[in-house]
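Fold Annotation — chain and its backbone

Encoding — discrete vocabulary of local shapes
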Amino acid sequence: MASSVALEDVQSADIMTELLRRMKCSSKPDKRLILVGPPGSGKGTQSPIIKDEYCLCHLATGDMLRAAVAAKTPLGIKAKEAMDKAKLVSDDLVVGIIDEAMKKPTCQKGFILDGFPRTVVQAEKLDEMLQKQGTKINKVLNFAIDDAILEERITGRWIHPSSGRTYHTKFAPPKVLGVDDVTGEPLIQRKDDTAEVLKSRLEAFHRQTEPVIDYYAKKGVVAQLQAERPPKEVTAEVQKVLSS
């Protein structure tokens, strides 16, 4: 457990900031959102902006599983057993962990789900669980983008390992090809950022996750975003969708 801090030890400015944040959040409508899109479509750029604007919690299933395992919650213990046997964690377990996470105060106004559901079965289980709570998914933001654009975006990424500075051969090239601007050290490409890895990840996305978009489209909650646009334009598009 995190150690509790006595209120008198907290800076007044911090208390005021938190009070103002809570007042701002209290007037926001509840939102339960799913972000869907292939790797490199910009979900990671937009989700913190949406989270802050609408006072939502960000539920990334991979992080939540790791946290549940570390905290040794009953579900975390079950998940660890599956992982230790190199088995996939069952859909019911993942939905249970989402159910647990949603009870936290930070999720009071709703949540953003990222990386789940990946299959129609998972979407059905998620909907069943939400139905029991008397809620449902409000919007599914589909970061639609052409595979060819993704390949250009992802395979052009280069990183300076020790600082984490990122470059892109087309959009943000270093001054000297293959070399960090600041230190002059060589840049590397992450093993996930190659055309071969992207190809297999895209195949999995089209095969497993596109049916999820169809599933929610039938419920009338899918919003198509033009994810090939610059980030600021996508942000404006998201805000328009979520304010309607």
Remarks:
- The two ends are 40 Å apart (CA to CA).
